[in-house]
Amino acid sequence: MHAIAIAHVALKYASTWETPPPTKVFFGERQVLEGKATAFTNGAIEAGIVHSRALLEFMGLKGAGPSTLAVRLNAKKDDVVIENTGLPKLSVESAVRMYAGPPAEAESALAHVIFVANKGLAHTTSAFDRSTGAAHLLEIAFRGIPKLVVEHFYKPLGLKEPTYEITSRPAV
């Protein structure tokens, strides 16, 4: 869930830029990299997309198209899935219920993150384009997926809620 939180922060920054600003990366007091800020944001967003897909599939959901979800019917023998814990798979209705906006938008956001992980990152396509409404859908997914995992996995098992949110400075 940390990867998703970092991706959320990176997406917020990247969405505000006309052109990516320069960046410097330090380990302690030593500068180790310099370049454009996308050297951080692109990888962070992509990692968050992949982790989002993994958590949604763990919870029992799969993509049924670019904007629709379905319940995963089965898992491979070596997959770690929520059913292994004795908890049920998450239904599409339960997944979208927590979103304060329209259910169709929530479903579209969750399905979009799976679609982008499968098609947009696995090979070069036009499926991942931040200039479209895709960034808005990713933002919704990045906000919601950790909450779904907490509500439908951690809490039912009586596990302590993990600290996963990232503190960042405001974009300037």
From TrEMBL:
What domain of life does the UniProt record list for this protein's source?
A: Bacteria
Protein name stated in the entry: Uncharacterized protein
